[in-house]
Amino acid sequence: MLDVFDSKASKVLLGLAIFLIAGFQYLYWFGEGGYQDHQKLAQKIQQQVELNQDLKERNRVLAAEVYDLKNGVEAIEEHARLDLGLIKPHETFLQMSTISTQYSPIYLNPNSKVDLRTNESADEPTTP
User: Fold this and answer.
1) CA distances from 84 to 12, 76, 77, 80, 81 (A)
2) What is the number of other CB atoms lying within 10 angstroms of the CB of residue 31?
3) Higher-confidence residue: 127 or 68?
4) Dihedral sign (CA 57, 58, 60, 61)
5) Exposure class string for 5-25: b at 16+ Cβ within 10 A, else e
6) Looking at 12-16, 48-52, 60-64, 109-113, which range is the least confident one?
7) Which residues pair with 121 in a beta bridge?
8) Distances (CA, A) of 87 to 70, 74, 75, 90, 97
9) Coil, helix or strand for 115?
10) pLDDT tens per residue, range 17-47
11) 120, β-bridge pairs
């Protein structure tokens, strides 16, 4: 098998084949449209597919809402109550507070001078 590479032409052909294989490998891994570009494109495609799924779900919800608004009175009444504050005759409107029970209001003396930068009153002595 060693006598196959004895001639100068076969050595040149072997060198050329190694050079071509190395060149093609370089193009495959690092060239334009190669493996790295393909991976980046596949990642972008996956992100776009996820975004499209989210948008399809949002469109489905909006289409259902449009259908309800066109065909039902309840959806129109709900929007009027939430967005416009609709209150029917003989109804009482109650608003629940979302303030925590741990909340304690701060009362200021209206006659005192308050420095808003430090939140300290001028009438009260400061303690270090």
Assistant:
1) 86, 11, 10, 5, 6
2) 14
3) 68
4) positive
5) eeeeeeeeeeeeeeeeeeeee
6) 109-113
7) 114
8) 22, 14, 15, 9, 19
9) strand
10) 999 999 999 888 888 888 888 999 999 999 9
11) 115
